[in-house]
Amino acid sequence: MKRFATLYEAIDRTTSTNAKVAALVEYFRSAPPADAAWAVYFLTGRRLKRLVPSAALREWAEMLTGVPEWLFGECYAAVGDGAELVALLLDALPHDEVEFDLPLASWVEDRLLPLAKTDIAGQRANVMRWWRVLPRTERFLLNKLLTGEFRVGVAQTLVVRALAEAAAIETTTVAARLMGDWTPSDDWFATVLAPATGGADASQPYPFFLASPLEDPLETLGARSDWFVEWKWDGIRAQLIRRAGQTWLWSRGEELITLRFPEIAAAATHLPDGTVLDGEVLAFREARPLPFSALQQRIGRQRQLAQIMRAVPVVFMAYDVLEQDGRDLRAEPLCVRRAALMQCVPHAGVLRMSSEVNEPTWDALATLRAESRARRVEGFILKRLSSPYGVGRKRGDWWKWKIDPLTIDAVLIYAQPGSGRRASLLTDYTFGVWDGDQLVPIAKAYSGLSNAEIDELDRWIRRHTRDRHGPVRVVEPVHVFELGFEAIAPSTRHRSGIAVRFPRMLRWRRDKGVSEADTLEALKRLMG
């Protein structure tokens, strides 16, 4: 655990990409393979299921330190992170002699995972004992692992880069080996670093290639004839795999979703063996996509599938083929892959091919893009015809040209601390619009402001807090912000009856008074 804590501190205290990669390379070269395997697991965003509730850690820390509940709450408002606060408070305790440093794999497999089958008294005894023998950083990491909230400021691409450097192999090879379902072990880690490329799991997807936002004028892309253009679908990005007589459907988040969409799995049985398609799962009816809110009804549903399948039919909209007859096509240019796609996927049915948009000029595309929202799409994806299928968000070959967001003017009504480096700042905001003479919450947003604006707003909120509900502050309704969002839909889960998708702050409207903010009725008209 000590070695992993040292790595965490090295990554956390720098913003330098090269310094983070160097720390990772050193760790992967020196750590025991089983420890390194678990480190990869956590560093790539995978988590243990919550083993102990955060409330239990707080209660046990209060019991050990004698800190009253009200004071713990005040400290939490300042620190903004429960795991960190507990680790800090426990510094005041006399600690037992530090035990022999236990490897990370032993901590996870022999101590943490067995807690799932331990009663609450046994959990309390174990955790309190561990707290007494661990220094602060390791105590903090323990708390994060126990509650399933471990995060660290390193992108998966950097982990891939470090593993590739440590093993002297291609990053694309490492990225592919980290995809799909795997269990951390010394043997698994050895396969990640192995020079040979054979023997892959038949269910394993490829790393996804991602489009970058188009910010420059279209003319900077060159000739229109060099580009393939298709609609940007608003669904679940996924890979459909047909190998060894079986079918797997993987989401971009590396979640196996085959059983949630049985009609797609059934349709995939007609694909030739050794086929991997990249595409989008869409709620679809009468030749057009349904809103994403309809697809959300399918995402979490495990029971009564037949009923929800009738209510919300889906399709797999394929726009690339990554493997054909067991041959990896990713290095081929898009024009070749597109021809291969046309051979195996029809233009209609549950499996269908994303159509090309054939407007011959950039100006004609710009005109057609204005119809995106009416077509229930998000704009265009522009792909260079000569482009291979890459890994991650490599700029230059694939661009997403999204429609302009819907916008409203809303009033800041609540604020609470952020997380990570923003844990000590009030950066998560709730905004409201007018419903008669009342402000009704309509959206939460935390992105869009500059650091200077965040600091200014944080100071203002602390001076103008009207009430508190736990970490949430009720503030004076004074400030108006322009919010942007991608879509709006009815919602029974929200007090306003409306849900907006991907809200963010576009600008602080210091020129507007609160009375000029939008109304709930105006939002309903937008939805209509």
Brief characterization of the structure:
By secondary structure, this protein is of the alpha+beta class. It is built from 20 helices and 20 strands. It has three domains: 2-147, DNA ligase, ATP-dependent, N-terminal domain (DNA ligase i, domain 1), CATH 1.10.3260.10; 212-402, DNA ligase/mRNA capping enzyme (D-amino Acid Aminotransferase, Chain A, domain 1); 406-527, Nucleic acid-binding proteins (OB fold (Dihydrolipoamide Acetyltransferase, E2P), Beta Barrel).
SSE blueprint:
Layout: H1 2-12, H2 17-30, H3 33-43, H4 54-65, H5 69-79, H6 82-89, H7 104-112, H8 120-133, H9 136-147, H10 156-167, H11 171-177, H12 186-193, E1 212-213, E2 227-231, E3 236-243, E4 246-251, H13 262-268, E5 275-285, E6 288-289, H14 292-299, H15 305-311, E7 314-324, E8 327-328, H16 334-344, E9 351-353, H17 362-369, H18 372-375, E10 379-384, E11 398-402, E12 406-417, E13 426-435, E14 438-445, H19 451-463, E15 465-469, E16 472-475, E17 480-485, E18 487-490, E19 498-501, E20 504-508, H20 520-527
Parallel strand pairs: 1-11, 7-9
Antiparallel strand pairs: 2-10, 3-4, 3-5, 5-6, 5-7, 7-8, 10-11, 12-13, 12-16, 12-17, 13-14, 15-16, 17-20, 18-19
Helix pairs in contact: 1-2, 2-10, 3-7, 3-12, 4-6, 6-9, 10-11
